[in-house]
Amino acid sequence: MAAINSNQTTPPTNIFVLSSYFRSLSKTPQRLRKRVLATWTPDQELNKMRLRSGADMKRKLTWYDLIALGVGGMLGVGVFVTTGPVARDKSGPAVLVSYVIAGISALFSCLCYTEFSIQIPVAGGAFSYLRVTFGEFVGYFAGANILMEYVLSNAAIARSFTEYLCTTFGQEDPNAWRVEVDGLMEGYNMLDFPAVALIILLTLSLCRSTKESSMLNIVMTIFHVVFFGFIIVAGICYGNTANLIQPKGLAPYGVKGIIDGAAIVYFSYIGYDSVSTMAEEIQNPSKSLPLGIVGSVLIVSVLYCLMALSLCLMVPYNKISSSASFSVAFQNIGWKWAGNIVGAGASLGIVASLLVAMLGQARYLCVIGRARLVPSWFAKVHPTTGTPQNATIFLGFCQASIALFTELSIVLEMISIGTLLVFYLVANALIYHRYAINTNNPPIYTLVFLFLLSSASIGFSISWNFKHQQRWGLPLFGVFMMSITAIFQYLMSSGSIQDRQSREWQVPFMPWPAALSIFLNVFLMATLKKLSYERFGVWACLITLFYLLYGVHSTYQAEEMEMEGDGDRRGGMRELCPNSNGEQPKVDIQVL
């Protein structure tokens, strides 16, 4: 009879859980009003949120670890994945200028990241910065987009590893080590098992120790920079300057092609964002973070430009291979042995960049799990290794699945739009945080300025895409942006001199660097293709739906439980007593 009774009680229990979930869904509007704009203070983010992971991450990294992580994370991505396709199809030999434009935009964005990372030295990166400034939903939306960008870019990088590894062993066909499956759609029919194996090995390494992974990255980065020097010297010394102007000039696709190329090569700079996620594992964040983030961006920008110049000197832009560009370039000038060396060095650089990106993505998911916007299982930090193993393994599985099937060209532009959007939001957040939260200025003034600045940036970008005769909006919107920024700087205070001196490092000449970052990110986003926005729109709908069905209810319940816990400590068992209106307090069911 006991077994019968047990079986009889199970269905009602399941029905009760399901009905409780639907009751929670019926309260979505009320919970949205309470949670969408809910913010945490930096102190809560630093202390209270970190307790949700159980064990702390171990502070073992120094400033030179950060520079090596930043350089290693960016180098393999930009040069070996995007330079060839952009030079051939977008910018021509002027791909060097595309890198300069993207580098300037990245420098402004990294300054915004640096100030935030010093004030809020946690592993959440852009997610944490936006959550404490604009509220829960904006932080979640940015965090979900940066995670998408990480997973897709890592999958793309892993597939590039296979292409360069083929050239290392003398294979002229970049698909030689891939398996073609006839029944699958084109673009998804070349299975890449070496890419999957690489992701699995790096995932296991990152689960073991952050410091050991950092030392491995330093060794690979040193060899990688030496190898870069070989390519730059060989290309400049043995290249032909005639290739810069033949067959159709320095900028065969015009100024628009240069800008379009800049939007795509911007993908090359996502590595510095990984550095900011290391904030909980740095011994001296206030000094190490500025050196690590800004220093790595400057070093990489110089190397990118020299590498792009070297490639275009060796081969005319219309003969550059879209796959394994540098290896094929050396083979075209008769240095087949150098092409094999380039393949080996590029493979090593891609491993380093993939290691850093996978390091950063797991920290993002870990902190989003702390906020209960995704299941708290992802927030757990292993007590022995001090690493977020659950998040690392889950994301490794996701990107291995994508790398197995998906061609590089399918994901590149979608990656760029996610990156540009997040950097745009962080720049807005820095201005609002500096001029509204840290001062007594009315927030409405800062919000109006940000709205006008973004609107003018959109207007300028739309005017740029018109025909030459219809570009009258360029000077109009350009002058308007500079005028409102100058007026805002003159009228709004960012705090007293004593307050500014008492704080840690801050971005100088505000609000100009952040305003320029906003403009450049909007401008580069406007150059992307319609398909990029369609794919991005689908992703935005999916993550918003997840927030409505799970995130808002989970965070609401987590906050309610913590408030009840605080009430227990302050007032004993007051929750068992009736409220002042004679009713029992309401207890919500947590959404699992």
Largest sheet, in brief, is: 2 strands, antiparallel
Strand content: under 5%
Give the helix/strand class. mainly alpha
Shape: globular
Cα Rg: 26 Å
SSE pattern: HHHHHHHEEHHHHHHHHHHHHHH
Distance between termini? 31 Å
- Continuous helix count: 21
**Strand tally:** 2
Spatial order of the strands forming the largest sheet? 1-2
Q: What's the helical proportion of residues?
A: over 70%
Low-confidence stretches: 1-12, 569-592
| Arithmetic mean of pLDDT | 76
Describe the structure.
- 50% of the residues are buried.
- The chain is 71% helix and 1% strand.
- The longest helix is centred in the C-terminal third of the chain and has 42 residues, at 530-571.
- It has helices spanning 2-26, 28-35, 42-46, 63-91, 95-119, 126-134, 136-168, 193-208, 210-238, 254-265, 271-276, 285-314, 325-332, 336-370, 389-405, 408-437, 443-464, 473-491, 497-502, 512-525, 530-571; strands spanning 179-180, 190-191.
- Residues 1-12 and 569-592 have low confidence and may be disordered.
- By secondary structure, the protein is mainly alpha-helical.
- It starts with a helix and ends in a 21-residue tail after the last helix.
